[in-house]
Amino acid sequence: MDKKVLTSSKLPVLGPYATAMEAGGFIFISGQLPLNPATGEVVMDIQPAARQVLTNIQTLLEENGLSLKNIIKTTIFLKNMGDFAAVNEIYAGFFPSEPPARSTVEVAALPKGAPLEIEAVAVRN
Q1: Which of 22, 24, 74, 82 is the most interior residue, by most CB within 10 Å?
Q2: Which domains are delineated in the chain?
Q3: pTM for this model (two decimals)
Q4: Euclidean distance between CA atoms 61 and 63, whole angstroms
Q5: What is the pLDDT of residues 28-82, one digit of tens each?
Q6: Judging by DSSP bridges, how do beta strands 71-78 and 101-106 pair with one another?
Q7: pLDDT value at position 1?
Q8: Which among 39, 76, 72 has a CA at the least distance from the CA of 54?
Q9: 40: left (phi over 0), alpha (psi -120 to 50) or beta
């Protein structure tokens, strides 16, 4: 099976990993932190952070000929499950109809002290 690294010229990568990999028509997007691409700083307030992560994922997809409608599964990692409702409010705005399957888990810590991270799986149709 052929695989292809998908990148974005607008998003930083913090380590030795691919931002996304495509194989067999599926796109596996690595966990994205709420990094402001202009400054490299982590957005810490939960709703702007959720918006930044989803915007970054959208940017990556669009640069590779896809959109948020191609996402079939997401996983949200939250430092505080108390932020669940606030994240849902932002998330619903990005997926107003037919949202992808999703899991949400609370974690002890995330890189750079970020309040959340989101990974996604998309399909090229």
Answers
A1: 74
A2: 3-123 (3.30.1330.40)
A3: 0.95
A4: 5
A5: 999 999 999 999 999 999 999 999 999 999 999 999 999 999 999 999 999 999 9
A6: parallel
A7: 76
A8: 76
A9: left
Each residue's pLDDT tens digit, 3-23: 999 988 888 777 788 899 999
Q: State residue 62 phi and psi, 5-degree precision.
A: -65, -35
The answer for residues whose C-beta is within 8 angstroms of residue 98's C-beta and 6 or more apart is 69
For the record, the structure tokens of 80 come out as: 């505080």
What is the 3-state secondary structure of the chain? CCEEEECCCCCCCCCCCCCEEEECCEEEEEEECCECCCCCCECCCHHHHHHHHHHHHHHHHHHCCCCHHHEEEEEEEECCHHHHHHHHHHHHHHCCCCCCEEEEEECCCCHHHCCEEEEEEEECC
